[in-house]
Design brief:
The protein has a seven-stranded antiparallel sheet, covered by helices on one side. A seven-stranded parallel sheet has the order 10-9-8-11-12-13-19, sandwiched between helices. Strands 15-14-18 form a three-stranded mixed sheet. It has two domains: 138 residues, 2-Layer Sandwich (Alpha-D-Glucose-1,6-Bisphosphate, Chain A, domain 4), CATH 3.30.530; 291 residues, Rossmann fold (3-Layer(aba) Sandwich). It is 34% helix and 24% strand. Helix 4 crosses helix 10, helix 6 packs parallel to helix 7 and helix 9 packs across helix 11. It is built from 14 helices and 21 strands. The protein is of the alpha/beta class. InterPro entries: DUF1731, Epimerase_deHydtase, NAD(P)-bd_dom_sf, SDR39U1, START-like_dom_sf. This is TIGR01777 family oxidoreductase. Belongs to the NAD(P)-dependent epimerase/dehydratase family. SDR39U1 subfamily. It comes from Corynebacterium breve. Pfam families: DUF1731, Epimerase.
Length: 444
């Protein structure tokens, strides 16, 4: 059993090979829908070792086989610990050959797993590599940056870190516990004076997760984890050689009440706790702006990733036969694919035309009812029973439900569209196929 599949990428073999040698390549090619995560990446394709974490504390150790290595042409990895019987004798040969139209990549996997199980994995890898290389090509050549990042171990931070390092940039993780190699200790309200020494850019992603019952303690955690830490980091950046400060934000700025016309970056602030919090969060970056640093506030919509955020919840609900439609489902949901979100952060770091608030949403928002239908269609599950609107209110409280789950927000990425930004997944169907593992192999 196993599978052999090939596909063509329109780039020179040296470019494609070099991308695979860089830190982050394994993370970029590991599907989010699989229950494994790379925790140690091989330093060499010739004889390095990669370790993946699995549920229940299990690990998958893959070692590159020197006998199956030819620089620029082929590398091979084998499973050396068989955490589950199905991957015993696993062997994956990656071949790269010249083609008139670019580089042909052939994946040969020997495994006890049947081809139908491996097809979604290979399809994900094919799409991810092609779109990552295409994004880098469109972005052009840039000097490598040293980037300090908070929140680097969340699902957005992990994806962005891997994308930046495959492009040749260096990411320094700012962490609150004891730092390891490549990390620096960050105290959110009392950062060390030398924290940003040698840093060209800051990406600030850290903050208390929004989901949870909107009681006073949770609201305080949401607010306090964002506003003061952002202000202190911004003040520190103002005293350093940092050139660009990219801070997370949210479309909660516009309030939950909806709008008769699409909302863009010129729309005034809405009402409610999240609108107030986001406004103060963005204002906390002012010290960096006053110091002449280019500041970008990424107002993210609902990020769709199968390893974090709301999509795993919607997927679990759909798997039970329930619908992820709330009430009549006739309210807007402004979403963004995870890879499009990281593209936007990446672009904010290198494109001097971006400054101030930037809506990070797909160009085609959908009604909640359409989102529910698309998830059910992708998973081939029936849409049986909608969730009454009192359901989210019971879990999140009235305020939390209205500001998070039931918010009616028709947001457009006007700034990005004006600059001609290309979205990988402008439509929901393709975004869900990638994240849920329902894409087809190229040529299949």
């Amino acid at each position: 059993m196993g599978i052999t599949a090939d596909h063509l990428v329109p780039f020179e073999r040296s470019t494609v090979w070099d991308w695979h040698t860089r830190p982050g390549a394994v993370a970029r090619l590991t599907p989010n829908f699989l229950p494994l995560k790379p925790v140690k990446q091989a330093e060499r394709l010739s004889n390095g070792t990669t370790i993946f974490s699995l549920p229940a504390g299990l690990k998958w150790v893959a070692r590159h086989d020197l006998s199956g290595y030819q620089a620029g042409h082929v590398f091979t990895d084998v499973c050396i610990n068989a955490p589950i019987r199905a991957v015993a004798n696993w062997k994956h040969v990656h071949r790269f050959s010249d083609d008139d139209e670019g580089t042909r990549i052939t994946d040969e996997i020997s495994s006890r797993l049947p081809a139908r199980t491996l097809e979604p994995v290979i399809a994900y890898r094919q799409q991810q590599l092609l779109k990552d290389l295409d994004f880098l090509h469109r972005s052009g050549e840039h000097e490598p940056l040293t980037i300090a990042m908070t929140g680097s171990r969340g699902h957005v931070g992990r994806a962005l870190t891997a994308q930046l390092t495959t492009a040749g940039h260096t990411v320094i993780q700012l962490v609150r516990n004891e730092p390891k190699s490549g990390q620096r200790h960050w105290h959110p309200t009392h950062p060390a004076s030398d924290l940003l020494e040698g840093v060209d850019a800051v990406v600030h992603l850290a903050g208390e997760p929004l989901f949870g019952r909107f009681n006073e303690s949770h609201k305080e955690a949401i607010y306090s984890s964002r506003v003061k830490p952002t202000h202190m980091l911004s003040k520190l950046a103002a005293k350093s050689d940092v050139k660009v400060f990219v801070s997370a934000s949210a479309i909660g700025y516009y309030g939950p009440g909806g709008s008769e016309s699409p909302i863009d970056e010129t729309t005034e602030r809405g009402d409610g706790f999240l609108a107030d919090t986001v406004a103060d969060w963005e204002n906390a970056t002012q010290p960096a702006r006053d110091a002449g640093i280019r500041v970008v506030n990424i107002r993210s919509g609902i990020a769709l990733a199968s390893n974090g955020g709301v999509l795993p919840i919607f997927r679990a609900v759909s798997a039970t036969g329930l619908s992820s439609r709330f009430g009549d489902g006739e309210f807007w949901m402004s979403w963004i694919a995870l890879d499009d979100l990281t593209d936007i952060y990446f672009t904010a770091l290198i494109d001097d035309r971006l400054a101030g608030p930037v809506n990070a949403t797909a160009p085609f928002p959908v009604m909640n009812s359409e989102l529910s239908r698309e998830i059910s269609s992708a998973l081939k599950t029936p849409t049986l029973i909608p969730v009454p609107t009192f359901g989210p209110r019971i879990l999140l409280g009235k305020e939390g439900a209205e500001e998070l789950v039931l918010a009616d927000q028709n947001v457009t990425p006007s700034v990005l569209q004006t600059l001609g930004h290309t979205f990988r997944y402008p439509h929901l169907t393709e975004a869900l196929a990638h994240e849920l593992g329902t894409e087809k192999l190229f040529g299949a």
